[in-house]
Design brief:
alpha+beta; 20% helix
Length: 219
Amino acid sequence: MRHSTLCALVLLSIASATIAGCNRHAHEKESLLIAGSATMQGYLAPLADEFVAAGLCTDIVAGGGLGTWDITGANPRITELHAGSYIFSDAFHRNLVPGFEPALTVLATVISRSGDTAVLDCGRKSIGIDRTPPEVAGGAGTIRYEHNEYFIHEEHTVLDLPPGSTLAVGDRVELMPGYSPTTVNFYDFYCVARDGVIIDVWPVCARYGSATVSLGPAI
């Protein structure tokens, strides 16, 4: 069905995900520059020209991703970047694309302490571990690695504590997700904090947040 026959639709943009390069590493940057340019010149730019010739809107020409925000953003034909993960970042994206400070953490509680080991009430059911494991904020400890795996179970995480640690049962620990996109879906709302004080609550409407939280704007 042609767009011109769909009176209820308003075309706003043209987008390509093929030049996202979200898995960019430093040694791949040159090849990504070449591939991104080829995609833009061989696919997206001609398609945008065809849209213009047909009288269709091309006010927004979108593409890219967080991994190539600097590459895609340098192209004058691109008016919008699809770099969604930058808003929170996480352990994976921070290591992949330096320069964006992580803003999302999961607040866990110490439920057991034995010697230089602590157990948290946070596991795979409450934090994203895709691509790379979570990290402990503030240097309170490191996630134990033993028998070729990280000690992150369904509902618990085991920490190795630094010498002299005073961490005790009941203390709170912030964990930076390994992967924020698969962390957000576990929760109904965000607690927005500034200088250690919760200043707002934002519901996650895609996960029933609007039904369980009445404070703050929906996002």
